[in-house]
Amino acid sequence: MILSDLISFLKSVDVRPRKSLSQNFLVDPNILRKIVDLAEIEPGEPVLEIGAGPGSLTSALLAKGARVYAVELDPIFAGALERFQNGNLNVFQADILKFPIEKLPKNIKVVANLPYHITSPILERLFASSFSSITIMVQKEVADRMASAPGSKDFGSLSVFVQFYSKIAGSFIVPPACFYPQPKIDSTVIRLNSTPPPEVDPVKFFGFVHKAFQQRRKMITSSLGLPKEAVRNVLVSIGARPDARPETLSLDQWAGLTEKLAQLPL
Predict the structure, then answer these.
(1) Which among 60, 95, 205, 245 would be 20 to 30 A from 29, CA to CA?
(2) How do residues 184-224 score in pLDDT, each as one tens digit?
(3) Is the dihedral of CA 207, 213, 214, 217 positive or negative?
(4) What's the CATH code of the domain at 41?
(5) Is 129 helix (H, G, I), strand (E, B) or coil?
(6) Which residue, among 59, 50, 138, 166, has the nearest Cα to 99 in the 3D structure?
(7) pLDDT in tens, 128-164
(8) What is the pLDDT of residue 266?
(9) Judgement on whether residues 136 and 231 belong to the same structural domain of the protein
(10) Is the pTM of this model over 0.90?
(11) CA-based torsion, 116, 118, 120, 123: positive or negative
């Protein structure tokens, strides 16, 4: 759907893009093709699309032969998606944060231009579900944080969270000119492949991670609220510096830290 087609469609349904819902619509067919190629969609595969909007990506996914489960909050857009019906499209007018993802096919692929203002809550729901890969468009700075490595300035709790459940499998940048209306920021399409999480209690794991990154300038020995000497000894035992700060620990080291701290009689 190029710009003139989109504007014509929006006029036909009497809708204007809503900034409050992060409604910036893709109008570059080349980007749509790149998204579908990055997701490696095969005929017959189930795909969850979040925030289908006017349906440009929906149409591209259906053209690849995917069985599309499109979740769209806006009732007008949800109703209009039926114009693409070819027997492989299931449309749900619903809030993705309340939608029963667990009722969809197992190991589903997720392909979406996410509403930027609720990216993190959506990821939490997706990671709690059964997925094979997630190919999403997000703000570039968010994608940079997702993919960052330990020791970099972008490495934080979001990096650890995403890499706990998945492996980065590719990405590309999308400039503002590819959207209508044009946002003021660059976007990135990033693919996350599902991986088995570390064998550690996720509640305790993320409890330590969030506590430490809330005070990322402090040493971990000072930010966890635990006896400093005990934390220092555990850090050394997992191959980290005794004065380590949270952004310097790898995912495996965070898992080791959690496991060993949980065993201590604190």
Answers:
(1) 95
(2) 999 999 999 999 999 999 999 999 999 999 999 999 999 99
(3) positive
(4) 3.40.50.150
(5) coil
(6) 50
(7) 999 999 999 999 999 999 999 999 999 999 999 999 9
(8) 65
(9) no
(10) yes
(11) negative
From 103, 101, 94, select the one nearest 72 (Cα to Cα): 94
- Let me know whether 256 and 222 are in one domain: yes
Domain extent, residue 212, equals: 202-263
Segment 169-196 shows an average pLDDT of: 96
DSSP SS3 for 111: strand
How far apart (Å, rounded) are the C-alpha atoms in residues 126 and 110? Answer: 9
8 Å CB contact between 29 and 2:
yes
pLDDT number for residue 160? 98
Integer Cα distance of 41 and 133 in angstroms: 10
Does 210 lie in the same domain as 114? Answer: no
Residue type, 213: F
Q: Which two tokens stand for residue 209?
A: 């991670």
Question: What is the distance, to the nearest Å, from the Cα of residue 159 to the centroid of all Cα atoms in its chain?
Answer: 11
